[in-house]
Amino acid sequence: MDTIPVIEFHAADISNGEVVVVEDLDLSIRPGEFVYLTGQVGSGKTSIIRTITGENPLLSGEGRVGEFDLSTLRKKQVAYLRRSLGIVFQDFQLLMDRSVEDNLRFVLKATDWKDKAAMDERIEQVLSSVGLYRKAYKMPHQLSGGEQQRAAIARALLNEPALILADEPTGNLDETTAHGIMKLLFEINGRGTAILMVTHNQSIMRAYPARTLTIENGICREVEAHA
After folding, report:
1. Strands, DSSP E only, in the chain?
2. Nearest Cα to 46, choosing from 163, 209, 197, 203?
3. How far apart, in whole angstroms, are the C-alpha atoms of residue 3 and residue 18?
4. What is the pLDDT along the chain (227 residues), one digit of tens a residue?
5. Nearest to 193 by CA among 166, 165, 161, 167
6. Number of helices (H) and strands (E), helices first, in the chain?
């Protein structure tokens, strides 16, 4: 198993775009790990995610995501950094004017896929892996919340990222649907994809224990996972 971290920060100050919200961050996530990031609203969880995706600059210290050095990241590199990641949002962020299949095709075209047959095959693969192959032709509004999140997860998988960032992926779902999404994320993780998941949901963390980081008073530290 590759032991080079997919994310690594050393003595990093994380800002919300204006002021430092997390100080002296030391964080390392290795391939295939599942890690929760938790903390109160405004504690800096989203700022860490935005730093990882290149949206917020790294103020000081060292930071690396895959092959990208965040301390020297140039604007023209940001799009390539984001292409190397899978990102799943709380509110799905599907394009509502096109089918599930065409949502995925849009991403493939935007990331320089050219071969239609190859695109069709990849779309079929990822939709099958999340249990949505028979819903490929549906519009997002025709899907349940859980199905929309599955479509968003399929989108995140398209380019086979080593890391998925999941920002409150169960936040808009009922408890039963949320458990289905968690089982899917752990299946994906079991196939070798690292996942960093932001959540406030303590019951989810108890039901699916994993390495856990929490932010309190501007410091991110590791805590014991729920038994």
Report:
1. 7-15, 20-29, 34-39, 60-65, 68-69, 85-88, 163-167, 194-198, 211-216, 219-223
2. 197
3. 34
4. 457 899 999 999 999 888 999 999 999 999 999 999 999 888 999 999 999 999 999 989 999 999 999 999 999 999 899 989 999 988 888 989 999 999 999 999 988 899 999 999 999 999 999 999 899 999 999 999 999 999 999 999 999 999 999 999 998 888 999 999 999 999 999 999 999 999 988 999 999 999 999 999 999 999 876 55
5. 161
6. 7, 10
